[in-house]
Write a structure and sequence with these properties.
The protein is α/β, with parallel strands linked by helices. It has helices spanning about 10-20, 65-70, 120-130, 130-135, 140-155, 400-410, 430-440; strands at about 60-65, 90-95, 95-100, 160, 165-170, 175, 180-185, 190-195, 200, 210, 220, 230, 235-240, 240-245, 255, 260, 270, 275-280, 285-290, 290-295, 310, 315-320, 325, 330-335, 335-340, 350, 355-360, 365, 375-380, 385, 390.
């Protein structure tokens, strides 16, 4: 049985190789040993976020496929001995492309390979067409078969990440495709201290979305699986990654029962009493639901949790939830929102129940179809702070009052939040966010 560990000598060789690449301004940096710096958002509070930076040599891994990745998360053992991943400090370097929809021989799997108990999409559509079934939730053998088939896919794509882990791409072309990284603890034992950097996450998709006939005017297909999800998890840093749909993009999906067959959920969701998270220098591209912070209006255990910082991220070709917040204190600064020829755009900042968004010095580039009052959507929330916002090259000294624009178009008015962020080193004028984010967000260009 291979353990996929790599020696300190090999790490040095790999770092040297990275430094030899064109434009290698990294100065022989080893991202696996780096930690979140003080005053870099909520994840720097207290003891900060160090991930697996203190890993012993035998807990340093180089992985190139799904099986190796899961083994590295479980002390080199595959299949894992339990559903609880290792919390021993570990550094995992991802090289090349890792696909989650593969068998144990790393052979690709397609949706039909997960079909169980007589399920086929054609049979499901025929059985639960509202013209035949009506507008009630599906029940019976085919719905049960859909759930069994969904569970078969979930067993492949769900990858559990333990505490004290650094997961980092090696070079600029590390990709994880089709996977759901599940950072999930419990109310009695939270996951903690996790770093994810320098990786492109693509095409996390659900082959078996649920049909919800009463969700909206026409019903909706509701998918599971986020590229990364946090539940009962604290001190997490997600940095210099790209999140996007390519092979499974929404514009390539059919419509069934008159609505889009939606196979995606979120890019990065932070829910269920998770806390102290920094999301920095990422690209969120070509997706509808980007980031949900807070799972439901009734999740009162989220009070005084869900403290998240978003800075220097690019949001382009995306629809909503940038982020949508319930309960949490969320600091949003120096992000760049590009809303050009985007038919799916709905809003950027979602003001949910008891949320307290503090947005400052963000830049919006829009076309004539989108105006500032559309940047905010309200979902039972009452408070938001937004200052220093620039829209389409606002002249020096002139800013756009996004909250004022929303209040002028809607009732009741939104009011100021009751907190002021402190965990940052410097916030630049929004105008500087354009070049900084366009050149610096996403995986390092070494």
């Amino acid at each position: 049985m291979r353990t996929y560990r790599i020696s300190t000598l090999l790490i040095c060789v790999l770092i040297a190789a990275m430094a030899a690449l064109p434009a290698a301004a990294a100065g022989n940096r080893d991202l696996g040993r780096e930690v979140l710096q003080p005053l870099d958002g909520w994840a720097s509070q207290g003891a900060g976020t160090t991930g697996g930076s203190a890993a012993a040599p035998e807990q340093v891994y180089l992985v190139t496929n799904r099986q190796e990745l899961i083994a590295a998360l479980n002390n080199g053992v595959y299949p894992p001995p339990s559903t609880t991943p290792s919390s021993v400090p570990k550094i995992i370097y991802v090289q090349g492309t890792i696909s989650a929809n593969v068998d144990d021989n790393n052979q690709p799997l397609v949706c039909q390979d997960y079909y169980r108990d007589g399920y086929t999409l054609e049979a499901f559509l025929a059985a639960y067409d509202p013209a035949v079934w009506g507008r009630t939730a599906p029940t019976g053998p085919l719905e049960a078969a859909r759930i069994t088939s969904r569970n078969a896919q979930q067993a492949r794509v769900r990858i559990r990440v333990g505490s004290n882990t650094t997961l980092v791409g090696l070079g600029k072309n590390a990709r994880i495709v089709g996977a759901w990284l599940d950072l999930r603890g419990s109310s009695s034992a939270q996951r903690t201290n996790i770093i994810i950097r320098n990786i492109t996450f693509q095409d996390t998709h659900d082959c078996f979305p649920a049909w919800s006939p009463t969700d909206g005017a026409l019903g909706a297909w509701n998918a599971e699986y986020d590229a990364i999800s946090l539940r009962e998890t604290n001190h997490v840093w997600v940095d210099h990654c790209t999140f996007q749909d390519v092979a499974t993009a929404d514009d390539q999906q059919p419509s069934y029962f008159g609505v889009l067959y939606q196979v995606h959920d979120g890019h990065l969701d932070i829910t269920n009493a998770s806390d102290l998270v920094t999301v920095s220098w990422n690209r969120f591209l070509d997706h509808d639901k980007v980031m949900l912070i807070g799972s439901s209006d009734g999740a009162t255990a989220d009070r005084n949790k869900l403290r998240v910082t978003l800075h220097h991220n690019l949001f382009e070709g995306v629809g909503q939830r940038m982020p949508r917040v319930r309960f949490g204190q969320v600091h949003i600064y120096n992000n760049y929102y590009k809303i050009i020829n985007n038919p799916i755009y709905a809003y950027s900042w979602g003001v949910g129940i008891e949320s307290a968004i503090y947005a400052e010095n963000n830049y919006f580039k829009t076309d004539q179809k989108t105006s500032p009052e559309q940047f905010i959507a309200v979902y039972k929330g009452t408070m938001i702070h937004a200052s220093g916002t620039r829209v389409n090259g606002t002249a020096s000294g002139g800013f756009t009052d996004v909250v004022g624009a929303y209040n002028a178009a809607n009732d009741p008015d939104l009011v100021e939040v009751g907190w002021t962020p402190t965990l940052f080193s410097r916030i630049h004028d929004a105008q500087r966010a354009i070049s900084a984010v366009e050149s610096g967000a996403g995986p390092f260009q070494w």
